[in-house]
Amino acid sequence: MVERVRAGDVRAAARLMRNLDDGIPGSRAVLRELFLRPGHAFVLGLTGPPGAGKSSLTDRLIAYHRKAGRTVGVVAVDPTSPFTGGAILGDRVRMQDHALDPGVFIRSLATRGNLGGLSRATSDVVTVLDAMGKDVILVETVGVGQDEVEIAGLAHSVVVVSIPGMGDEVQAIKAGVLEIADVFAVNKADREGADRTVKDLQMMLDLRRSTATRGGLDHDSEHRMTRTGAEDPHEAGWWEPPIVKTIATQDVGVVELAEAVERHRAHLERTGERKLREVARARATFLALLRDRLMQGALARLAEREGHLDELAARIADRSADPYELADELAGRL
Amino acid sequence: MVERVRAGDVRAAARLMRNLDDGIPGSRAVLRELFLRPGHAFVLGLTGPPGAGKSSLTDRLIAYHRKAGRTVGVVAVDPTSPFTGGAILGDRVRMQDHALDPGVFIRSLATRGNLGGLSRATSDVVTVLDAMGKDVILVETVGVGQDEVEIAGLAHSVVVVSIPGMGDEVQAIKAGVLEIADVFAVNKADREGADRTVKDLQMMLDLRRSTATRGGLDHDSEHRMTRTGAEDPHEAGWWEPPIVKTIATQDVGVVELAEAVERHRAHLERTGERKLREVARARATFLALLRDRLMQGALARLAEREGHLDELAARIADRSADPYELADELAGRL
């Protein structure tokens, strides 16, 4: 199985991913082998709110890279219903244009329940796609929550997609995306307010740069001015996230977006930051894995002793079981 | 401390929350005491994408409940930078109107890093506010990711806030919000496209209801029609989420929204579903707690043996450490 996946065998890779999802014994060992001898993929994250057109952009980026002769893997992460366990794939259908292209492998992920396995599952798929020898891996996530920030941690570069007309654009910043964005795409740029959105983003970036120039993480306003003017962030290997206007449905701005990402990739290589990103990626991979394993182990043990989780929850609800004691006790075994 | 919080002492509650954040010994024991003898709060979640105006709606709902003589607690959850650990509070400032009102207690939460403590921290604050005797607790979360779904699990009722002009509204549904919504608010309803948004949401709800009527979770299309017509979902205690148009900044539709939530609350009581919600809340509380404890324990143990997490990540990045082995070993101790 390891060798077949490594040779790029699509059926073997698909089978492995299913086996990992279903927790089939042995699939973990295969994944581990693949992880320990990685490929060369560049992992690009795309994140942003629902309705921003991330799937359309992903679709266009696939076409762009295919045209350049690169093989592409895609992980589309769909937060899903906590009740039905099913994902509504909707516009994923569009991507089926690429379904017959052997150079493209697309995997949609849905969580089953909300026990926190989403980032681990994403990390697994990225590992498999990388081992298959894909040149580029696109990881598309919905939203701006904590989970998405974690998934973004699996990428070398992150494109944050926003759209005009979301009202106060500072809102998007508030959600912490500024810190994870390497490139901004303002999609649906033919809509009213696109220039305003670009301007707002630029203002936030300017503010951040001037703060960084004046002394990094020093947020004490009294001392802010003391280091003014000395450093030029550009000289110090500073990356200024470009803002690219796109209209994915009309294939407008997609080349510019891909080129902006390419410049970031070159920046990572030139400054040695790529290595730091690899460490950050390893950290994200490990934490996702650890959390998943711990929860699986703890819940299995709990089921043995306390019965089904739902029964335990009922006892906690009427205060005849103490969740703090139980959690402490289980964690205490470490 | 337990008694002071229970008596509604604001300073004691604020101190306890800070102590919990900082992991001060003894604060957990206090929290546990509070949890085991709960108050009577009704917990209302508000969730939706950035820019939907959740903070403004929260602000108006506070005013509504205060006018009705109810005390209010607020937890505003801000996903934050994974790099700086700081939250940009932005429009939280607006809520400071209530800062001098002793009947209102507002707590903004930011994660420090992305180790998954957000839902646990939220759960802690809800427990404290409930113990203080608050009548209503509003939990405001940004986004539609997995984490937010989990936080929504801490609420009795959930309002999903959307806005017109987000393009294809089916996008919002895709992200799994349909399943967690008890009430929909279409905010900024003076914008173009508000009626379209309402119609789209209504269509999704109709589709869901007809599917449920025809046999619940049976998604096999061949068998779908066999149970048609027999059940009326309304008779069987079915809750049809109302859709309320609001303009929070002008205080339009806020009373209607609050009344829709009140009807849902009455529905929960009448059908006995409130008890089920309490069990679901207990489940969410426990899982958040368990995950947090497990990760804390595992990372502490890891630090002892393997050094700092960042050094370990560097070794994983160059494949001289095996994350699968490490995670399995740590989880295996359970």
Kindly describe this structure.
- 2 copies of one chain form a homodimer.
- Chain A has 3 domains: about 1-35, no CATH class; about 40-270, Rossmann fold; about 275-334, no CATH class.
- With about 325 residues, chain A is α/β, with parallel strands linked by helices.
- Chain A has helices at about 1-5, 10-20, 25-35, 55-65, 120-130, 145-150, 170-180, 195-215, 255-270, 275-305, 310-315, 325-330, and strands spanning about 40-50, 70-80, 105-110, 135-140, 155-160, 185, 245.
- Residues about 80-95, about 170-175 and about 215-235 of chain A have low confidence and may be disordered.
- The radius of gyration of chain A is 22 Å and the shape is globular.
- Chains A and B meet through helix 3, helix 6, helix 7, helix 10 and helix 11 of A and helix 3, helix 6, helix 7, helix 10 and helix 11 of B.
What is the topology?
The structure is a homodimer of 334-residue chains.
Chain A: H1 2-6, H2 10-22, H3 27-36, E1 42-48, H4 54-67, E2 72-78, E3 104-110, H5 118-131, E4 136-142, H6 146-152, E5 157-162, H7 170-180, E6 183-186, H8 194-213, E7 243-245, H9 254-271, H10 273-306, H11 309-317, H12 323-332
